[in-house]
Structure formats: structure tokens, C-alpha cells
Amino acid sequence: MTITGEATVVKNAGSHFLLSRLPEWAPFPAVLKGRVRLRAGDSTNPVAVGDRVRYQAEVQDGADTESISLENPASISEILDRKNHIIRRSTNLSRQSHVIAANVDMAYIVVSLYFPEVKLPFLDRLLVTCEVYGVPATIVLNKVDVYAGQAPEYMADFHRIYTGAGYRVIDTSVVTGQGIDVLREDCRGRVCLFSGESGVGKSSLIKAVDPSLSPKIGKISTAHLQGKHTTSLYEMYRIATGGYIIDTPGLRGFGLVDLKKEEIGLYFPEMLKASQDCRFTPCTHTHEPGCAVKEAVEQGLISAERYSSYLGMLEEDGKFRQ
Length: 322
Fold this sequence. Notes:
Blueprint: E1 2-12, E2 16-20, E3 28-32, H1 34-38, E4 52-58, E5 74-79, E6 85-89, E7 97-102, E8 106-111, H2 120-132, E9 137-141, H3 144-147, H4 152-164, E10 169-171, H5 180-187, E11 191-196, H6 202-209, E12 220-221, E13 226-227, E14 234-238, E15 244-247, H7 269-274, H8 292-298, H9 304-314
Parallel strand pairs: 3-5, 8-9, 8-11, 9-10, 11-15
Antiparallel strand pairs: 1-2, 1-4, 1-14, 2-3, 4-5, 6-7, 12-13, 14-15
């Protein structure tokens, strides 16, 4: 007997997937039909965690998805329209792109000031991508127990830069529990993505939000003060509050996709607001006289760090960079 239906991708293992008919949580295996793969274009992954898909499966008469097995998986026949997604340039320096997740209610971008040290251009590329593709973003400043007492001025600077740009910043610590209740409540009833560089503590945060979960947790490489990749799969977890968290492998870089140079400034909220007073339209905010953005930077109303990230994006050659 053939059954058909719609479900959400809750795990991506490359060529094999797990689907579940959310809000029901009963994952079953699936594979991708060849014709769907061919439509992927220049993306390395035609199906991402969070995607809504149509599937079909052969099951015993009277059975449902519980009889679908690894030996007899369902087939994904169609990817339904996405409300949003997060995409980056593939890390192989080609022109290919990679979709990190789809249909996300909130992206939590996890960073740490040290161990590993936050790279503001990386963070800003991720934030710009969220703006471009309609994904609400919150910044999670993790491991604050490590440096709150020793470097409060750096924490204050970080908050100044990003709250000034219009972003919400949550301070968290798995050790002290700071901010964990806030995250837990935020995730209630929503599909939330946790993303960031390797070693910033995403998996530890997820486990703190719901201790019943068991995402892989790794240690920092002391040789390079960078995180080791402990999450190799893209996976969604159901949490006790009724929401869902998507865990992703730690990222070591983030290349922009499908964004023209003259559009980049539109996705810096603080620059977009200031640019309404620029003398010329369009304005690249680099050399034009009467540029309100440059004036705002000089006055400290727009952070020099964010403006520097913007200039770096203008100079991108379209390839992935660390």
C-alpha cells in the first residue's frame, strides 16, 4: 500500500533524512528522489533541516509511518515553499551554496568573547544573511562566567555595538545558569536555530535548555583556541517546552550568497536608517559627499566595527573567505 503526506525534515545526514509530521514527533527515515536532487541547482544540499516536504512510502496494508524503516525508507518527492532560510557560500571555494536551515522562527547566533575569540566580520555576515532571507536573529553572548569579572569593558563594548545596531543580546553561562531560563522560554513553541563558530558552546547551551537532550559536546583545541567540530549532522530536537531546536555543525567561515554590493548596506539596520539622509541615492557610503552613514560613524552613532565589516563585504570577491 502506498501512503503520501507532508512532513518536516528533522535530520540531514547527507543522503539520508529523518522526517516527522510536526507537531507529532515520530521521526521516520527517507531518501531523496533523483529528480528532486537535479532541481537543486548550485546548492550542495537540496533539502535542509526545517524544510517541509511531500513524501510517499510503501507500507503494509493498514499501517502508517511506523512501518517505514531504514530498509524501506520513504521517498521525498517535493520540497514545499520555504518561508525563510539561512544560506552561505559553500566552503569549497566554488560558486556553490549551502542551506543551513529552513522555516526558522528565530536564529540564535552564539558567540564568545574568548575561547574562541569572536570574529565580528563573521558575525556580521551571518546577521546580514538573516536580514536578507527574513530570519529574525538574536545574539547569544555565551560563557560570560569566564570574562564577566575580568573584562567587563569588553562585554560592554560588544553590547554597545550590537544593541546599538538594533539586535537583542542575551548573556548566557551554562556554568552559572545565567540566561538559560530566558532561552528556554524563548524557544517555547517555536522552531529555533542555534548557530555559530566552532567551540562557542552551542551544544552545551542546548543541553542546558533541555537536559534530556544529548547533543555532542566538544572541547576547545588549545593549539589554536578554536573549537573542534563535534556536531557533524544537521539535526532538530524537540524540547520539553514544546518547541524545536536545530543544532548545526560549528562554522569556520561564512560567505555571502546572491547579494549585490549596492544592496549590502540595506541589510545593516542602523545604516539603512541613517542612509535616508544621504545626499545621493544610491550611496555606497564610501566616498560620496554628504553621506549620512559616514557622518554617523564619525559621530559614534554607528560603530566603527560594523562599518569596517561593511567595507569588507564590499571588497568580497564572491568566494568563501575565513
